[in-house]
Design a protein that fits this description.
364 residues; Serine Threonine Protein Phosphatase 5, Tetratricopeptide repeat; elongated
Length: 364
Amino acid sequence: MPTPDAAQPSETEQAWPRILAFLDLGRPAQAAAETLRALSRDPEDASLWRVLSQIYTLLDEYPQALEAAQRSVGLAPDSSGAHLSLGTAIWNVRVRGKVFWSGAGQAAQTALAAINEALRLEPGSTEAMLTLANLHLLMGKPRLAQPLIMTALKAEPHHQIAQLYLAEAWLQQKKLVLAEQQLRKLLADDPNFAPALHLLSRVSLRRGRAEEAFTAALAVIRLEPADAGAQAHFKMLVQDYLPFPTSALRYVVLPHIIVIVPFMALGIWLRNLYRVRQLSPHTRTQIRRVRGSAVNWRSPFVLYLALCIVIFALVFALPHLPASIRPGANGAVGWLILALFFVGLLWLIVSGVRVVYRWLRSRR
């Protein structure tokens, strides 16, 4: 029988099993609510603020995650985990989804500094090493990420995420054979590891093996039918391998280049026909299921392309017109070509102004 003065678990200690149970069950919203209740009783607990930051990250509520991480660092400045959460939160709020020349580059350095501080406080932290490596990979710097990944693998040779990041580093360095070997090794241990299947699909497509790429992407969809990310990844692969003919418009740098767009679009369409014939019937069916065929006929691209086609038809028809109306038709077509040039130039100016405006807004 316990004595009256026996130590009893505090309410905060009693909350931890419930928080972890909610997270294990995949219910981060309930975990966040439980953590907030515990913090209302003990607002000076740095560990609770750190786990709250991690939970908000799972919920994609990045500003709240940053605020919680800052509270954790303020309460425990010598905690490696607190600095790690802070670096991740800074990245998600100030860098994620933004271009580096818009000011995100400076924010990225702040995030890297926080994670480096976590490594300084705990040099052997595999989690900190892999988080820092992942940020380097996201910045397109695989040579900086690779030593961190190799160090983590020396400590934990079978670490799945470390092996995955190593394959991503090989891919970014265009060492496709090494990337595929690493992924095959990883999938031999866990054939249903979705991130490895996604990465394998990218590597296979880069190596010109489209059927294998689509097979790997479809395997993830079969594993997780309700995962919107898996569906989006498959659609991205389809777009990369079978781009729409209108994608030829991205090569238009100067207005007069528009005249060759119809021929480029025809070339893309013929190449797509050839590529589709190389795929299995099952893969073709899956591609037709996700491939959108709707065209926005009111878009500037389509209207401009239609005007170019009309002018082309008129130019080829001019020699066959009666001699009496040919001079007037020549003048009319000349004015149309001039109008097409100035419309294209205006279009490029407006697009440029819009890009500059968005960049200026992103710096506020």
